[in-house]
What we know:
Elements: H1 2-15, H2 23-51, H3 53-76, H4 83-108, H5 113-138, H6 148-151, H7 161-182, H8 196-209, E1 226-227, H9 231-236, E2 241-244, E3 249-252, H10 261-272, H11 278-290, H12 295-305, H13 308-315, H14 317-324, H15 329-343, H16 348-363, H17 376-387
Parallel strand pairs: 1-3
Antiparallel strand pairs: 2-3
The protein binds zinc ion (ZN).
Amino acid sequence: MSCVLMSTLQVAENSSPEYEVRPNVRDARRDWIAVIVLVLAPLVVYGSARIFPELVERFYSRGVYPYIGRSIGSVSGLLPFSLAELGLLCLLALTPVFVFWYIKSVRRRAESWSVRAGVLLRRSLCALGILALVFQLMWGLNYGRLPLASTLAFDRSRPDAAELEHIAHEIVDQTNRYYHVVHNDDPSKGGSFDDQAALEKSIEESYSKNRLLPWPASLGGFASPKPVLLHDLMARFGIAGMYSPFTGEPNYIETIPGFDLPSTMAHEMAHARGFAREDEADFVSFVICTSSSDPRLKYSGYLSGLRVLSQLAGSDPQRYRELAKLLEDGPKRDLKARYEFWARYSGKTSYLGNRVNDFYLKANGIKSGVKNYDEVSALIIGYFRRFKGTSPQEEDYARVIVTS
Ligand SMILES: [Zn+2]
């Protein structure tokens, strides 16, 4: 009986054209199908999000994403250190071990180098496809949401020099004012930016009270911002902060000048709340800081808002020079301290960091790349036009009409 069965199987194997294909060729075909599916999947998700930003806004950014971000953040938030940093260090440490193990394991098999290289290529593409898909679903889709300027119905027409001067003047005045409040009129006091837990509490409070920014800005429960241990290395790459979507953690360098801590922490916390684009995270940070009752946040926010001046410099250099004279010595010293801090780290590594960031932003549909940071000026101008630079809080929520 078994002989009959064996001979039947042999006949079937010999006569079927499928079995004329060698096993490793069959494996390669199957792997290439997997590669195509796994590389196409994130591209389809990415492309669909760009076609339907309203659906992304409604069902993802204000729908499932807040639950995803808060769930991951609540797990990583149990740790007092950055899980993303630890994971990255482990990955770097384990890479040589993996390479050694891989070379050793493939040497044992009787395969040519071209077959081995093909297998490695297919597996790498599959891994990249899965990584890109997980990134899109866990946070990356927020790049495809509606622009904040249209959600908040901002007037996006180009301002003339007089209007720019008026807005920049207001920011300069507020910067001078809150410098004195923070330093208690004593420039020898360095300001009290050392208590990062208190700064975070003030930022969270301002987020929870804000009624201008779309949901889930006012929602709590996202992971707290965490300082990284390798701050020197991160500064060398020209990065003050970074949001890790895979761990839901806003990370930042605590060694930057103290007056920049609130705006940097609020920026990374904006990313955690689903504001992915850099100009929008900067704008959210500006609104959160300047509408806070904590003068340290106000000073940090207005100091970051001085970027509007550079737009005035391009539009009317004479008006810019006149206005720049109104900025007092205290804030000027702080701007110099900021410049000197980053100048210490400028070099080939910071250039590389800038290029990688530019590539990453462009790959996520931000056409301007790293110039996206400077586009915050247009949002600040829209904000001053509509709300005179005063963010509506809980008590005057009824006055505000926010389109969505
Ligand atoms: Zn950012």
